[in-house]
Design a protein that fits this description.
Phosphorylase Kinase, domain 1; membrane; EC 2.7.11.1; single chain; phosphoprotein; extended; alpha+beta; 13 helices; Transferase(Phosphotransferase), domain 1; two-stranded antiparallel ribbon
Length: 472
């Protein structure tokens, strides 16, 4: 008992001491200590709140800038994101291009001459102003002329000087940023002749800029198609690599499908099918109209740009692979965007045009439903668009998958055709997937067979799960 009393007394004395200290006056405005502590606590709390609000505001501003959607009469930013670069294939043209890029890093001003030999080989000569390359004529000029040299014609496009692109983009001002991502930043530029272009300034992370530079120039430098974004020129100044594209001023499909467009989507059913057909035509040209064929490898809604007449233009070829005439596939590192990548490519790394067909099937589902391929805000059974879509069709609820923002629903016959195309594109057997040219005909044709379409859909769904179960 005496021990207990002693402890109690010590605690009481300690409490009195703390109280006296807190009530004692401090040199700061003669305020008591507890008042000073309260003021400091409030200041720290207020500072934390302000920092949190600032971070939220900055994040929202950045998100709005990238995802803002306007009507087609206005200007919508060209957005492409999450591009991962790869090594270009080791062909003759690529070796010439390597020489060109290396020279562009060492020389301030270049002139590229492109000729075709008797065997159809493309010869590219790189000439520095004031110097003579092998087999070329002297083109006099001093080093002082290099900074002011005009852009040169390089056969398929133009060679731009860094100074010219700086003027076009107002020194790459933030006001002219129309897209940004892991690959770099895209700027809106106005050239001296008044033409508007999109300038992609590639980030030089461990040489990635040079890789994408080579891939895009090799893949689409000479390609011209109404459903492919045109590469109109390029610039290589030391480590800086830039690509100059035609400017598309009506945004991308992702913005129109998932942005804040109001209670009724401007994308009617007819417009959506037009976009799907245009995308299919662009891919069909890459797969079937070029030699070597080009596998895009990153088909997704943010890479489908739209003009003011809703014409689709496939963009961003930074992941593209070239496939020779005797090659059925190419083995490469798995890249792409989660939700769009075909299962066989994801599991084996073997890539061919069938991988693009699968991605197109997912894109077509996205166009029809207005849903993202992967949406974690949905219930567990609806997060994966492909699984949810197949389940709805198998349960004869195909009409319920249509985007509710479409004011006028499509006729049942037309809807069934689109649903069937989706299911055929995502068939687990690559050999059973249609070619992109066939898909164009299926989406356009009025003579598409519709006898027992529901049964075809159900069989497709059944065999999908049967094949999937065999892989487990």
């Amino acid at each position: 008992m005496p021990v207990s009393g002693s402890n109690s007394g010590d605690a009481e004395a300690s409490g009195n001491f703390i109280t006296q200290k807190l009530n004692s006056k401090t040199p700061f405005l003669s305020l008591k200590l507890y008042v000073v502590i309260a003021i400091l606590s409030l200041c720290v709390f207020a500072a934390l709140v302000l920092m949190i609000l600032y971070c939220i505001r900055t994040n929202r501003s950045s998100r709005k800038r990238r995802m803002r959607v306007k009507h087609s009469s206005g200007s919508i930013p060209l957005v492409s994101k999450e591009i991962v670069e790869i090594k270009a294939s080791n062909g003759t043209v690529n070796k010439k291009l390597d020489h060109f890029v290396k020279a562009g890093s060492e020389i301030g001003s270049l002139e590229l001459k492109e000729e075709k030999g008797s065997a159809g080989e493309i010869r590219v000569d790189v000439v520095e102003r004031g110097k003579v390359s092998e087999g070329s004529d002297t083109s006099g000029g001093s080093r002082s002329d290099k900074s002011a040299v005009e852009s040169q014609n390089i056969g398929w496009g133009r060679w731009y000087s860094l100074k010219e692109l700086e003027i076009a983009t107002r020194e790459f001002s933030e006001e002219n940023v129309i897209g940004e991502g892991g690959y770099g930043i895209v700027y809106r530029g106005v050239l001296q002749d008044g033409s508007v272009v999109a300038v992609k300034n590639l980030l030089n992370n461990k040489g990635q800029a040079e890789k994408e530079f080579r891939v895009e120039v090799e893949a689409i430098g000479k390609v011209r198609h109404k459903n492919l974004v045109g590469l109109v020129g390029c610039c290589a100044d030391g480590p800086q690599k830039m690509l100059v594209y035609e400017y598309i001023d009506n945004g991308n499909l992702e913005q129109w499908l998932h942005g804040d467009v109001g209670p009724v989507s401007p994308l009617t059913w007819d417009i959506r099918i037009k976009i799907a057909i245009g995308t299919a035509k662009g891919l069909a040209y890459l797969h079937e109209g070029l030699e070597p064929k080009v596998v895009h490898r990153d088909i997704k809604s943010s890479n489908i740009l739209l003009d003011r007449k809703w014409n689709a233009k496939v963009s961003d070829f930074g992941l593209a692979k070239l496939l020779g005439p005797e090659s059925t596939y190419v083995t490469t590192r798995v890249m792409g965007t989660f939700g769009y990548v075909s299962p066989e490519y994801a599991s084996t790394g073997m890539l061919n045009e069938g991988s693009d067909v699968y991605s197109f099937g997912v894109l077509l589902m996205e166009i029809i439903t207005g849903r993202s391929p992967i949406d974690y805000s949905k219930p567990a059974g609806e997060m994966n668009l492909v699984d949810w879509f197949k389940g709805m069709v198998a349960n004869r609820r195909g009409e319920e998958v249509v985007d509710p923002l479409i004011e006028v629903q499509p006729p049942p016959r037309i809807l069934k055709r689109a649903l069937l195309v989706c299911l055929r594109c995502i068939d687990l057997d690559v050999q059973k997937r249609p070619k992109m040219g066939q898909i164009v005909h299926m989406l356009e044709g009025d003579d598409f067979p519709f006898r027992s379409v529901t049964n075809v859909l159900l069989r497709s769904h059944f065999f999908f799960f049967l094949n999937y179960a065999s892989l487990l």
